[in-house]
Amino acid sequence: MSRLRPQDAEKRARRANGADFSEALARGLAVINAFDRQRRQMTLSDVARAIDLPRATARRALATLVALGYVESEGRLFRLAPRVLKLAIAYLSADPVPGMLQPVCERICRQVGASCSVAVRDGEECVMIARAVPARPASVGLGIGYRLPLFCSALGRVLASAMQDRELDAFLARLRPVRFTRQTVVSKPEIRRLILDVRKKGYALADQEAEVGIRSIAVPLVRFDGKVVAAINIGVQPEQVPAKVMIADYAPLLLKEAAALKQQLV
What we know:
single chain, alpha+beta, Arc Repressor Mutant, subunit A, Beta-Lactamase, 2 domains, 6-stranded antiparallel β-sheet, two-stranded antiparallel ribbon, globular
């Protein structure tokens, strides 16, 4: 059995995960998460660098995932296998919220002729769990499972606004804003102001900050006890609907839908 490198042993010692934490499982999940749009296929060395672990450790994790059918190999290259989708399906099947909100997204989409999505927070990102698009979608490629940064997306700012003040301070302290477009706000004081504005206004508007060609307005979905559990948005191409119209028409529509859902969310 190989020994941990000194730096890896130090990382483990700093963790507060307890004796029951499984390093092997964590490494396997890290390998799965290392694949993305920019890294669709990787060599063993690529994977080891991506998850910052020795090649031998990465090799064992890859071999296990290949044996289980979650990763495929072709020559020196590895890529995710369709079986990975079973993990997403398990979440969507076990949580009743996505199934309940999908029809809501579809109804709003038909009503306004624009995309409608629901997202939940996952760390410093939000992930879509329900989505409906018109026949000619505003953005190709976005769907359930798509991720957006909290700091510069309407959905993300709504979810960030639900953080307690200390949690928000910690989030902003470790945030390293990336300029995704020319309109992305990267000033931390301004990001804080925009997030706190959601608490006052009840909605967030992001204009081509996370993605060129998408203007989005979002509101929180609050369950019966007042806790924000998700965010719902409408996204359009900027030339389709002015920002003022989205605030005047779409924000009240979303807020009405959110109020109707409050007692159903758990």
